[in-house]
Amino acid sequence: MKIILWAAAIFLLNVPVVKAVTVDITTEFNADMSKPQHNEFKNTTPESGWCFVHPDYCTPGDYSIMIPSLRVDKYLDSQSSNILDNHISLTLNTQKKYVTFRNTKTGATFEGEFNLFLISQVYRRINPGDNDIGGPVADAVFYSNSDGCFTSIPAGTASSVGFSTSIKNANNITTCQHKMNGRPFTGPVYMDEISIGYRLVTPRPMDLLSGDYEAEIVYTLANGGDIDFYATSYSDNELKFHVKATVNHAFNVKFAARDINISLSPQDGWESWRNGGRIPSKLSKEVPFDISSSTRFSVTMQCDTPMDERCGLKNTQTGETVPMDVALTMPGFFINNTNVNNTLLTTRAGGSEFDTTGSFVVNRRSRVEFRVNRPEVEKMVKLPGSAWKGAVTLIFDSKME
């Protein structure tokens, strides 16, 4: 009898678990006809953290936000020669991160820049029987300036003390360290109420289409990471910023009426034709309108009597047709980098696209001209008493998304 024994080995791999804390940042642009020169995003993130609680310790315009639930543990020893591990220390990556924002519906993208410049925290002693923590930490960091770091502290107590460290030179990885001198302290502590200051740079919103754009920026929280407290433990090992940028453009077109009936006629009237038989060079009519837009838009033309890519007029008795030009003049707008001046419309799918070149054009008086040129006029006047009719629909479509 042969016995075969199979041995199976099971290997357990230690796969690190990533715990991330997420911070939401929102910014938006709303085109405002009363402020046509306004062309910047507005930070709409609810402010919290250091600069909100202690504005006197921040530069005007600095913005901070609290990192929820983040806790960092550390062991302090004022007698230790290891300043980084046992005293007050921090390394912060303030380098610019280039991030891609993506429209949540269309997939359109734009590039932005993001960087950190400030971080604040509250040090708290864990053991009530340990010495005063406020004094030693305050002695180390009170209005100190080391290695490009400016650190300020408003107040300390026996059990806790809070302060901020700001690094004005972006695009660096800067380490700040402060040795506890004077009053001694030895024992475990933890940091909470941690907040950060950030800067977000985006393109001019008028160069973007309307919609919601989102991006994510990730920083590592660890010894040797982007944010390093030289700690014994971190409650989370990643800090994620979820950034949402909303663009709301404005667009408005005003005609005298929704349905407009017009009659085409010679520029100087019909007298020359009636008295001398002079054929007019054209029959035309201009219809004025006002337009406001902070974004690109298209105009699509539809006809009840299409003729190639133009609209036509039809003889109500014989059914004969003649082509008619429909042309737009809109000061302040461009098509293919050319001023919109007597620009012919076509019935091509998608229409003609016009641009504001990144500006807000408000209540600009414009016009659409309908005209039949001389070759077609010659054909029409050979049938005196005839009636020629046609319907044209213009669809203005703002590129909101």
The global form is: rod-shaped
The secondary-structure class comes to: mainly beta
Unreliable stretches, pLDDT < 50, 5 or more residues? Answer: 1-8
What is the count of β-strands? Answer: 27
Q: Please give the domain count.
A: 2
Radius of gyration: 35 Å
Terminal CA distance reads 78 Å
Task: Please work out how many helical segments DSSP would assign.
Answer: 5
Nearest-integer average pLDDT: 90
Indicate the percent of residues in helices: under 10%
Strand content: over 45%
Question: Largest beta sheet, briefly?
Answer: 13 strands, mixed
Strand-helix topology:
Layout: E1 20-30, E2 42-43, H1 50-53, E3 64-66, E4 72-77, H2 83-86, E5 88-93, E6 97-103, E7 109-125, H3 134-141, E8 144-146, E9 149-156, E10 160-166, E11 173-178, E12 186-201, E13 211-220, E14 227-228, E15 233-234, E16 238-248, E17 251-254, H4 271-276, E18 282-293, E19 297-303, E20 306-307, E21 310-315, E22 321-335, E23 338-344, E24 352-354, E25 361-373, H5 374-381, E26 388-389, E27 392-398
Structure description:
By secondary structure, the protein is mainly beta. It has two domains: 20-248, no CATH class; 251-398, Immunoglobulin-like (Sandwich), CATH 2.60.40. 7% of the residues lie in helices and 49% in strands. It is built from five helices and 27 strands. It has helices at residues 50-53, 83-86, 134-141, 271-276, 374-381, and strands at residues 20-30, 42-43, 64-66, 72-77, 88-93, 97-103, 109-125, 144-146, 149-156, 160-166, 173-178, 186-201, 211-220, 227-228, 233-234, 238-248, 251-254, 282-293, 297-303, 306-307, 310-315, 321-335, 338-344, 352-354, 361-373, 388-389, 392-398. The strands form four sheets. Strands 1, 2, 3, 4, 6, 7, 8, 9, 10, 12, 13, 15 and 16 form a 13-stranded mixed sheet that branches. Strands 17, 18, 20, 21, 22, 23, 25 and 26 form an eight-stranded antiparallel sheet that branches. Strands 11-5-14 form a three-stranded antiparallel sheet. The longest helix is centred in the middle third of the chain and has 8 residues, at 134-141. The termini are far apart. Mean pLDDT is 90; it is low at 1-8.
